[in-house]
Each structure stands twice: as C-alpha cells, then as structure tokens.
Specification:
Strand order of the largest sheet: 9-10-11-12
Largest sheet: 4 strands, antiparallel
Number of helices: 0
Length: about 425
C-alpha cells in the first residue's frame, strides 16, 4: 500500500506524521498560563532556509513594493505589516524593487484569559485548544471551531459578544479537522474521526466521522457513512447547499445529497484528499491529494477534466477563484501558485514569505488571497494593475497556523493553530 499520512495530535510539530501502520495517538498538551503577553512572529532565519525581508535578490522595494527578500539575518518579535504591492515580491509580479525598507509596525498580541467569552477584537489569541478548522456562518454572526481532541471537539461562539453557544449534541471524544456551514447557515458539516478502543485501522472507515448538525438546536441531523479510510479531512457545500463533498485519508471522495444523506457520486482517489472545493457554478469539484496533484472532476458525471496541477503533498490545497477562471494552490517549496483553470497552465508563483508548509490558500475575492503556514506566517496577497499578485500584508501568529476563515464582509480573517493552541482574528 502506498505510504499515507496518519493524523497525529502532536501540536508541537505538525498534525501529520507519515506511517504505513497505525501508531498510538500522541498526548495533547494544553496551553498553560493565560493572561500573558505574547510577542509573536520571530522573523524567518535565513540560515534555516527562509527568506528575509531586507537585502538579497529582489531586494526590498520602495514603500509601495516588496521584493522576494534576502538574508536579513536578525529575528524580531513583531508582526510585519507590509505596504500594498507595486513591484518585486513574487515570480512574475513586478520588478526588482528599490532599496527602501517597508515600514514595520510592532504589534503585541495578548493571550485571552478564557474561552467564555472569546475576544473578537483583532490581535488577541483565544487559548481554546488546537484549532484545526474554523468557519464563519454566512451571516457573520457565529464562529465554529473544530479541535483536537477536546471534548467536545466542536465549539460555537456568538460573534456579537464572544459568548459561547450551546454545544452540539452527541459529541464523542473525537477530533474535528474541518467544518463548513451550509449557505443558508442552518446546517454545520464536520469532518474528523473518533479513536477506537484497541486502535484505528488505516483502511477501516468505521472511525471516520462526517456529521450534519442543526445549528439552531445543536441536534445531530445525520452521520454520513463515508468511505474515506480511518479519518475524514474535508467537507464542502455547493453554493445552493444541495450537495456536500467529503474527502479523507484515502479510498474515495464522495458527493452526498444533503436533504436525505444519499450518496450521489464516488470518485476513487490515489491518496489522502486534504481538501475538496466546488467551482463557483458547482459544476466541477477540485480535489487536492497527497500525491502532489490537484484534479478537477465533473460533478454530474464523475469524469476527470484536468490533472495537470502540480501542488505540494503535505496540506495540499487548491480552490477556484470567484470567477472560476483561475485556481490558487499550495506548492512545493512553501509557495502559493496561481493556475489557469481551463488549461492547468502555471500563471504565477508567490514566494518569499512562507518558510514552512502552507496550510491553506483561500480566495477573499477576485483580487485577494490569504495563505497561512505551520510557522504561523499569514500572508495577504493582492492583485496589482497588471493582474499579478504580490504580498500586501504579512502577520505572524507565533506558532503553527492551521484552519483559516474569511468573514462574509471580507474585513476580517480568523486563523487557528496548534502551538500556541487557539485562534486569533486579524483585520484585512
């Protein structure tokens, strides 16, 4: 059997380890010492393989541009806020830049004292456990967070005042990796797994959990009998809410009719499906898998449409732009890549800021993307007048960044992580 990633619960390194057999789940160390101040974002050490913000090839542009950076050498405990792009910064986007460094604004992120209520203001870490999945409700009133392996593993908060909402019913001692609200906000889909007594078998889907919940009451609507191997990793609704796509450790990516839980399509995949996303018109499904390829499938027929998009294997992610003409993906070398959605041709590589696995890349709108990584760097990419993307703003959360969500009004993002364990809101 092809080597596959096995989920680990070790927040100090990553949530994925490689193994060909199931190994014991690692213990979960809770974050101690609330009410402390955290200076976040030790900048990348070039000697450790990252890129600096000053000097080197591409240089640092003027106050309206950034280069790819060189060996800055020093580390600084700050969040970096970079001016809007105008040159340099990414392959195919602008020139070499000038010599003036961009303004760097130091920001202190405080650690909140509790999770009841949470702090909804930007730059405050909510120490609510390892947060692998985060999602806003479509009306922007509720935040849902999935975690490892707390009891319960899904929490809901009211964003108007940060107060917790009642827990979902019938939760077990499980892990939630991903979650999504239906477009009408009435249903929450969650994906993860439950640890079985005696151990989980890799090809046994009995421990995989994909469930649909009534948001207003917390009641379990149904559990979908997914065939994903021992865990489920991704869920995505169509824009009309009629269908739900699911993926996980292996075997199959499946599409389900939400109204009655009927499986309407099963697609055999070669390896773990880290992320699944529908196209804006719901006619296609893009599946990012551990073998380093993102494939596009026809939702109606299950036919393979495109398989030329080369991505990274770990934390593979790829999604359509709002107009459906481009695809943004993670890529080998800790980069973000932009592709032609019709042909699979590479349009641009966005490099120079991530120095660890990129967890997710998410479209904010047609001209903005956000990406985060396992070192805690979060990058806002904006399209310039030429149509190319360059970094517009860069933050560091001080530790591994996993789930990421964009508010419906496009003014705020929230990113969750494993070390430090919790989630933080950031202003766009």
């Amino acid at each position: 059997m092809q080597e596959q990633p096995v989920k680990s619960l070790n927040p100090r390194t990553s949530r994925i380890i490689h193994a060909t057999r199931w190994s014991a789940l690692l213990s979960f160390a809770m974050l101690l010492g609330c009410d402390k101040t955290l200076l976040v974002g030790a900048m990348v050490d070039p000697d450790a393989g990252g890129q600096g913000l000053a000097g080197g090839t591409g240089g640092v542009g003027s106050t309206s541009s950034i280069g790819t950076g060189g060996a800055a050498g020093a580390t600084t405990d700050i969040i970096v806020k970079v001016p809007p792009p105008g040159g340099g910064g990414a392959s195919g986007a602008g020139g070499a830049g000038g010599s003036t460094s961009p303004t760097i604004t130091p920001v202190t992120i405080s650690i909140g004292s509790s999770c009841a209520p949470i702090a909804t203001t930007p730059d405050v870490l909510n120490p609510c456990g390892q947060s692998s999945g985060v999602a806003y409700s479509p009306d922007g009133q509720i935040l849902a967070v999935g975690s490892n392996p707390a009891m319960p593993s899904v929490h809901l908060w009211r964003l108007s005042d940060g107060m917790p909402l009642p827990n979902l019913d019938m939760q077990t001692e499980d892990t939630t990796y991903n979650l999504a609200f239906s477009p009408d906000g009435k249903t929450l889909a969650t994906a993860g797994y439950v640890q079985l007594q005696g151990g989980n078998q890799l090809d046994d889907s009995s421990s995989a959990l994909v469930r649909l919940w009534d948001v207003s009451t917390g009641a379990l609507i149904r559990r979908l009998p997914v065939d994903t191997g021992f865990y489920a990793d991704s869920v995505a609704f169509t824009r009309d809410g009629a269908l739900l796509a699911t993926g996980g450790y292996g075997k199959e990516v499946e599409i389900w009719r939400v109204s009655d839980g009927t499986r309407v399509l099963a697609i055999t995949v070669p390896s773990t499906a880290h992320n699944v996303h529908f196209s804006p018109d719901d006619s296609k499904l893009i599946v990012a898998t551990y073998d380093g390829v993102a494939r596009v499938w026809d939702v109606a027929t299950g036919a393979l449409i495109l398989d030329k998009i080369q991505i990274t294997s770990e934390m593979a992610d790829a999604s359509f732009s709002p107009d459906g003409k481009q695809i943004a993906s993670t890529g080998d070398g800790n980069v973000v890549r932009i592709w032609n959605a019709a042909t699979g041709g590479l349009l641009q590589t966005l490099a120079g800021y991530h120095s660890a696995y990129v967890s997710h890349v998410v479209w904010i709108d047609q001209d903005r993307l956000v990406s985060d990584d396992w070192q805690g760097t979060v990058v806002l990419w904006a399209r310039d007048a030429s149509g190319s993307f360059a970094a517009s703003k860069v933050w560091s959360t001080g530790g591994q960044a996993l789930g990421i969500g964009v508010s419906p009004d496009k003014t705020t993002i929230v990113t969750g992580g494993g070390s430090p364990q919790g989630f933080v809101f950031l202003s766009l």
